[in-house]
Design a protein that fits this description.
Blueprint (H helix, E strand, L loop, with lengths): L1 E6 L8 E5 L11 E7 L2 H11 L3 E3 L6 H12 L1
Bound molecules: zinc ion (ZN).
Length: 76
Amino acid sequence: MKFFYLSSRPNKDGLFEIHDRECELIPDALNRDYLGPFNNGKEAMRKAKSMNDSACLCRSCCNVAFQAVFVKSNQD
Ligand SMILES: [Zn+2]
């Protein structure tokens, strides 16, 4: 379980990024809304879409391929 946040400021594509709490790219506390605990970015996305139709997944913390590599190296 991770804690996810939705940026309240659009990125350069006009989309609002979803980040997990550990993401280095997460906006500061004033510029994000708490989504809740989810197993992955995809589940957080479902909630975020109900709040903001322009929500998108952060490429750094919510990208599945990247995350798989990251988790694996973490467990070594
Ligand atoms: Zn992120």
